[in-house]
Amino acid sequence: MAAERSAADGRSNFEPSSPTTTLSPGSPSTVSPNCYKDTGAYDCEAATNGSVREKSNLDKCPKGYPNTAGFMSSDPNFGQYRGFNYLHSRVLLHLQNSLAVLERELDRKDGVDAGKICLQSIAKDKQQDKSKRSREIILTDIRKRLVEYDEILAKARELVSFQKPSNRDYNSVINWFSNVEPLVEKEQAFIRHREDLLTINTGREWCGFDGMIEKMLKKCDCWLIRRLFLTEELRKKTQASEIHYFDKKRVEKLVGIIITAIIFVLLILPVIGMYKLTEVGDAANPQSTFTAIGVLVVFTLLFSAAMSLLTKAQRHELFAASAAYCAVLVVFISNLNGSSFGGNAS
User: How, if at all, do strands 11-14 and 3-5 pair?
Assistant: First the structure.
């Protein structure tokens, strides 16, 4: 099973090799021999003496957390980490209960001192209250807990705004982990918590049509495709045949051209069809008008389906675009009928 991905600086696809395939030298799990001393131990100094640019080359990262970090940072959509939603809820519930306990304690103390001057003056309260749990101590505890509670609550709200990894992104990462196995099983098990994973990418989520274009580019992989859709930086990221990178901007241009062509066809075909109807029959004839309306309805539905499948348009955007498209065709039908009536009157 192949998996594909889009990136902020490039688009990449990862296709795992079969379980019996041995990764060849230069694959992501291969480490440059220059990073090893004569004893066979990994020489951190030799590795760090390289240029910073080499950090982006997966082939130069030793197997383990180094090449895992290299892979997950090579593409913004490969950066998938757990959000720990359950733990956030547990901590918030614990703090919430602690605040509720302190709130009740404060209420009880205020009830005992009801009508006394200590509730009207903080200075008097400090002078008169000599108990172990004074009002000052209770409020200090409440303040500390509130700061913790508000901070975690705000962070939990921020996590909700993070995007979930798409199926294409997740499959790319899970396939890489399954094929390379960079970490011990227990420590790379985090990637299998699909429902708890978040992506750090802030770009728009690509629709299925973009993924289909990527698959076509990968299947048609040749020197021309690499020349058109790969930058020099992307070519240097890795020599592994299992990983494919495509420049995001260039793929977006291709997708934009295809979508523009489809919309152009959907605009021209109904116009030509309704114009032909006026040549064959009388545009003033109700039958011809109903036929033209039928053409209008069919192509409006096709336009709406194309907008929904080819783009990530929101519902209100889809409604507005469909209404505008339908209005253009209605105006065209009206002009045809008006011209026909004018011709008959003359």
Answer: antiparallel
C-alpha 190/C-alpha 83 separation (Å) is: 11
- What whole-number distance in Å separates Cα of residue 127 and Cα of residue 65? 59
Q: Is 271 helix (H, G, I), strand (E, B) or coil?
A: helix
| SS3 state of residue 221 | coil
- Give the helix/strand (H/E) hosting 82: strand 80-82
Q: Are strands 11-14 and 243-246 parallel, antiparallel or unpaired?
A: antiparallel
Distance separating alpha carbons of residues 39 and 73, to the nearest angstrom:
31
| Residue whose pair of structure tokens reads 């602690």 in the numeric block | 98
**pLDDT tens digits, residue range 171-211?**
889 988 988 899 999 999 999 999 999 988 765 555 667 77
Rounded Cα gap, residues 297 and 60, in angstroms? 58
Distances (CA, A) of 176 to 89, 99, 157: 31, 45, 31
Distance CA 256, CA 251 (A): 9
pTM (two decimals): 0.58
